[in-house]
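Let us begin with a simple case.
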Amino acid sequence: MEAPKTIKKRKLIDKSIPNVVLQNPEFAEDSQMYTSLLEMERKLDWTMTRKKVEIQDALMRNPTTTRTLRLFLSHTVSGQVWQNSGVASDKVNFETGEGIPAWELKVEGRMLEPPNQRSRDKAPQRKFSTVVKRLIVELGRDTTLYPEGNIVEWPRAPGAHNPALDGFTVRRKGDTATRIRIILYLNHSPPQYKVVPELANVIGIKEDSRVNVIQALWAYIKSAGLQDKVDRRIIRMDDRLKPLFGNEVMFAKLPEMVNRYLAAADPIVLHYTINPAMPPPERPTAWDVEVKIDDVALRGRMQVVINPSKESLTAMQRLDEEIALHAQSLHNAHLKRTFLHSFAKDPAHFVQTWLESQSRDLENILGSGPTEGMSLRQEELRRSEFFHLPWVQEAVAIHESLKLAERAAT
């Protein structure tokens, strides 16, 4: 035996109230306030839907922010003469390097927290190596005296196989002063490019992402009215852009043309000097540089707007159902009031009309009576909706049962 199907409860969605209630002078003020609230709700729903679409579009482009990266340069020394009370160490181990004068350079970095950041928006601190694309350390030493190599390079490997490090260390033997140049290529997101001076002087941007450069050029084209009046796909260049793009360019070719005037962004170059004959500084030397990264906090807040919690959706749905239930109660109260008001105004006429209506409905259902079911009006029979009323199925069932009873009797 199959289990009976559960009947789904029909949810009330109509939140409007009867026009008679709206037009009643006694409820005019309250009705106007309720109508204004419904209109405000519709506008708010439309605005929120539009904003959600805009946020989804923004998420496709990965929101970015500019953060400050603080670089630290420091060094330590070992085995130096001044560390051995002015006497060269007599315990030298060439295999382990113990006792040999040497120095160690440290290149470290730390991302600074933005000011006035909320605690719930704080993201895990990024490691220094995750914002470095390439690091080169050049040592100004005589290669004949120090054959270890004067160039140390750390290239970022493609993919997610790079270790997350707080810094890099370079160790070399020696007791002479050394000038060091650190060349740092940052891993911006999105990648940054240097704009050639000819185009940079027109759009006013020297370095930015490819998308922002194209948008700046498009803004200049629109402000100068360079689009063809007839065919909007054609861009007719002015005197400042003709040397770069020619007389005219198709709109679809514009990004490709811009790529020709973009170059790799200039690296950050830092200079540092190590003098092993003197004690290292107590504090490291620091520089602040700007780096563009993905805005994880903003992305999280945008995701919350697009995907609200289940608790919020459940609470809103419950409130909507309560409003619809109250609106339905007003409808029922209005019908009851109309019924009682008609009865109180003329009880005899009301009862007579009600009895005639009930008699007519019963006659229509049974198909018999004083008029033998002919009390139906012709205009009702012409309408298909009449045969879909709730009582029609019951009337057909009664009619067929009467016919079966007649056949059984004969």
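The second case is a distinct protein. As before, the sequence precedes its structure tokens.
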Amino acid sequence: MMLVTWGVFIHAFLILLVRANPWSFRDSANCELNRKQTELNSFLWTIKRDPPSYFYGTIHVPYTRVWDFIPENSKKAFQESQIVYFELDLTDPHTISALTSCQLLPQGENLQDVLPRDIYRRLKRHLEYVKLMMPSWMTPDQRGKGLYADYLFNAIAGNWERKRPVWVMLMVNSLTEADIKTRGVPVLDLYLAQEAERMRKGTGAVEMVEEQCHPLNRLNFSQVIFALNQTLLQQESLRAGSVQIPYTTEDLIKHYNCGDLNSIIFNHDTSQVPNFNNVTLPPKEQITAQEIDSYFRQELIYKRNERMGKRVRALLEEHPDKSFFFAFGAGHFLGNNTVIDVLRSQGYEVEHTPAGQPLNRRGSKSEGQDLDQLDSSPLEPFLHESQDQHPLEDEDGMPHMLLPDSLELLEKVERKLKKRRRKQKKQRHRQFNDLWVRIEER
């Protein structure tokens, strides 16, 4: 999705978004949560064709925190669709390899070589603080499931000195107490990807890694240093207790569950970049912040929406007899110049589908499945690993990577590694994206 997703960097989009006006942002989340189907929010849109296809807006938080507030017709649309498409395919090892390569500095360079000395020292000091504090941030439930602080820290920050500064900035924003406490359960978009594979649906992605990654890498050096400095200032203020956390994952979850279709909130979830606009900045720095915001709004929202919309159209035209479920970040469907607007401009009729509204199936029928049978299938959350598919293993039987969210799979891999360690004294080192757990000798 999240995913990249990207999604592990949720605070990178939102913490600084509300520094200028946090109270109005918080107040809008004070809603009464309903569990009646007709009163639930809906991030589902129907593309009217025969068979129908669907857009669904995801969010990069643990799926268990939002699942009960997702309407049954949204779950049914996912279940009945034959093919599920995401922004990126994070279950594909090649995607993760490309993400890793895109984030790294050129061969032979280290972060210490490119950062100003003061910022490098502050960054190193902050990461040492995070590593020291992380054991106290972990919840008893996480520890009970075998997710330990040193393991998780290495998964996220183990290769930080080889990363480009812009990715380090995003990494720092993901190393907060609130973010760490959410690790251990698949985020919503990843959960849907896992379920699509388990249900043997066709899956795919509408974007390539380079299309999401390169705009970040093209930010000029002075802008990157400004962004990293602002991020460190924010974290240092939080450590000193001089400011309160203006926005948390809990706030984002409540906005989603309350059905708040605020495009400002979810566009920053989609663009993956914090909003550094702040009324307290000096005029020159305000200009830099505005330039960064404008650049990424164009590159990571508007241009992506246009590109994604055209590829959705191509898929629909190439497979007129298939029912698709497109699960993208909610911000791609809200505000101006959305993916929906692109489809509508091409002559497609796309309508919002409220909770409780029956799906118009028409000719929709999943291959090899009867619709009546689908109606009676359970829609409760479930996590299973396919017994005959091992997408995370290479020809040697070793995992390419492992999500920190996938604790069930983590336990299986740990047992497998212990057996192999009895036979082998050395394991070859691998590169991992910071979305995935580094498997190494401990």
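Confidence is low (pLDDT under 50) at residues 1-29, 266-273, 364-413, 425-442. The two ends are 31 Å apart (CA to CA).
Keep these points in mind for the review questions at the end of the chapter.
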